[in-house]
Design goal:
There is one protein chain. With 228 residues, this protein is an alpha/beta fold. The protein has two domains: 3-119, 3-Layer(aba) Sandwich (Rossmann fold), CATH 3.40.50; 124-225, Orthogonal Bundle (Arc Repressor Mutant, subunit A), CATH 1.10.10. Helix content is 39%, strand content 21%. The strands form three sheets. It has a five-stranded parallel sheet, with helices on both faces. A four-stranded antiparallel sheet has the order 6-7-8-9, with helices on one face. Helix 2 (34-41) runs parallel beside helix 3 and helix 4 runs parallel beside helix 8 (193-205). It is globular, with a radius of gyration of 18 Å.
Length: 228
């Protein structure tokens, strides 16, 4: 049974979401301020953290920063509807996805399932790998990545997106396909999540010898991982 941590100071909403998640088969706990949320998230007991942005004592952005300094546990941010700044900042700090508030329990569960589904290791009998593309090696079954022979620290969504790009190295992958395969959801209009995650991947991969990016933007189409 997957374990989910809800971090939100809205006790009534948290109780509602926790009850719904538990009915859907998730073992769910709650924390009601950022400091308690960070401590619980770093205890290593949870498969995913749902983290609200606006909280007392420690807001969700700073809580995410502290979590990412020590853990790659998947984090789903709850943001105010229409607040693109919080969304982008959260994604840049390593959030795997976001859900705008107010959200329905059904929508939240769908996003949680999408993230966890992409994290499941392949069966040992069908394990493949590594996927190789230039200096990149990916082992999907164990969710490990090496870049120039060194371990590459990635969030769960970054790994998913890089895996999709690596499987299609040398050709363009459009944003809709990246969103479907890498994030488990359809690409929404004006959604910049893919762009922010790709920007983070570019920083982690660095540049090629000529100073260009390993992940090229093909305007109006999508992204392409350079295959050398």
């Amino acid at each position: 049974m997957p374990r989910v941590l809800l971090v939100d100071d809205d006790v009534e909403l948290t109780d509602l979401l926790r009850e719904y998640l538990q009915r859907e088969g998730f073992d769910t706990d709650a924390a009601h301020d950022g400091e308690a949320g960070v401590a619980c998230a770093l205890a290593g007991r949870y498969d995913l953290v749902v983290l609200d942005v606006m909280m007392p004592r420690l807001d969700g952005v700073e809580a995410l920063r502290r979590i990412r300094a020590a853990s790659q546990v998947p984090v789903l941010m709850l943001t105010a509807r229409g607040d693109n700044v919080d969304r982008i900042v959260g994604l840049e700090l390593g959030a795997d996805d976001y859900v705008p508030k107010p959200c329905t329990p059904r929508e939240l569960v769908a996003r949680v399932r999408a993230i966890l589904r992409r994290m499941r290791p392949a069966d040992a009998d069908s394990a493949e790998g590594p996927i190789a593309a230039g200096p990149l090696q990916l082992w999907p079954a164990t969710r490990r990545a090496h870049w120039h022979g060194e371990a590459l620290a990635l969030t769960s969504t970054e790994f998913n997106l890089l895996e999709v790009l690596a499987r299609h190295a040398g050709r363009v992958v459009d944003k809709a396909e990246l969103s479907e395969q890498g994030m488990g959801r359809a690409l929404a209009r004006f959604d910049r999540s893919i762009d922010v995650h790709v920007s983070s991947l570019r920083q982690k991969l660095g540049t090629r010898a000529d100073g260009s990016s390993w992940i090229e933007t093909v305007r109006g189409k999508g992204y392409q991982l350079v295959k050398e």
